[in-house]
Amino acid sequence: xxxxxxxxxxxxxxxAAFLLARSGISTVILDKSVLPRKKICxxxxxxHCSAEIKRLFGVEIPEEVxxxxxxxxxxxIPPSGRENGFHNPSSRIQNIDRGxxxxxxxxxxxxxxxxxxxxxxxxxxxxxxxxxxxxFRGENGIVKFRVSHLIGADGVxxxxxxxxxxxxxxxxxxxxxxxxxxxxxxxxFYLLFRGDISPxxxxxxxxxxxxxxxxxxxxxxxxxxxxxxxxxRKWLSEExxxxxxxxxxxxGWSIPFGDxxxxxxxVLLIGDAGGFCEPxxxxxxxxxxxxxxxxxxxxxxxxxxxxxxxxxYRRVADPIGEKVREITDYVLTLTDEERERRIQEKRAxxxxxxxxxxxx
Length: 360
Ligand SMILES: Cc1cc2nc3c(=O)[nH]c(=O)nc-3n(C[C@H](O)[C@H](O)[C@H](O)COP(=O)(O)OP(=O)(O)OC[C@H]3O[C@@H](n4cnc5c(N)ncnc54)[C@H](O)[C@@H]3O)c2cc1C
Known about the structure:
Layout: E1 2-7, H1 11-22, E2 27-30, E3 44-45, H2 47-57, E4 66-77, E5 86-96, H3 98-111, E6 115-117, E7 121-128, E8 131-138, E9 141-152, H4 159-165, E10 171-179, E11 188-192, E12 202-207, E13 210-217, H5 225-240, E14 247-256, E15 263-264, E16 267-269, H6 285-301, H7 309-332, H8 336-359
Parallel strand pairs: 1-2, 1-9, 2-6, 4-11, 9-16
Antiparallel strand pairs: 3-5, 4-5, 7-8, 8-9, 10-13, 10-14, 11-12, 12-13, 15-16
Bound molecules: flavin-adenine dinucleotide (FAD).
Residues 7-13, 30-33, 37, 39-44, 121-122, 153-155, 159, 174, 176, 214, 253, 255, 271-273, 277, 282-286, 288 line the site of flavin-adenine dinucleotide (FAD).
């Protein structure tokens, strides 16, 4: 019997397994895929996220995980266009391949003593006296595990979450198109904000010689993907003379949209499974890691606290959940005037900071 079972070897699950194993908890981490698996993602790690990874894992994200160019700065463009945008030359965003990144984190968990099982898909969880029984479909049929705690880190369409609450969570789709044409973009992550294109934002990222165009789509808050992409490409052509050519592929997946759920009893939901993703920027890796830390804190402190481990986790992770809910409400009422105001405010702050730095 293991003390903890983690379902899903994405950044949330791998971090939880790493922290549990490092604390001496016998841990198994399972994934339905063969690792490294493909994950549809922009693959961008913000500076605060990479600093947290360095603090937790004790090492920098290794070179083999990066794509070209490995480090990007940030350009933010408001609805009124490029000339009112700003560049943040000191931003350091790491440009990674998600399959390799997630596998690296999972191997760190294994190096700490966690047991990894691939091609093993969770099908069912049952309470049985003093333990949980989780059933998985593996290569050789059904496997059962009796565990004290189960962490559901199985992504936005989480089976763990459906077993606890039924139904599926509220989501936004993020769609990406890959083009061979590079245009004249800098080695930067371009975030472009215009409500008639996306209720969150549209972006441009260079990846291994391609240009990736991406945007968020919500069924009632903005246009469908085809309309959104044709407006986006037109805007890029007007602002950057960019003619998207050499189409390679289109892909899409969902991100959570404000529907936070912590779990019940001995089952804790983290990362996308728990709805922990910043809905405005789509930043889910950092929130996955933060919720994993909270879940491990709850498991490690359980003996000293009353109530279930899920109650304790709810208390520890509530500030993260609250932040996600607040940002979701903000997105729901966002107008182009507000997008413009917010970006101009940030731009002014950046100009102020650079004046202070120049004077120092
Ligand atoms: C197009 C797009 C672009 C994005 N860009 C960024 C970005 O640039 N930066 C950023 O921070 N975030 C980004 N995100 C969000 C980010 O990808 C997610 O928030 C993040 O992957 C969540 O991590 P996780 O560990 O919770 O889940 P996941 O990474 O989804 O991992 C879940 C794992 O669970 C496994 N699994 C699923 N079901 C089962 C089961 N029943 N049994 C066993 N295993 C199972 C899956 O195989 C998978 O490996 C983007 C999302 C999309 C869709």
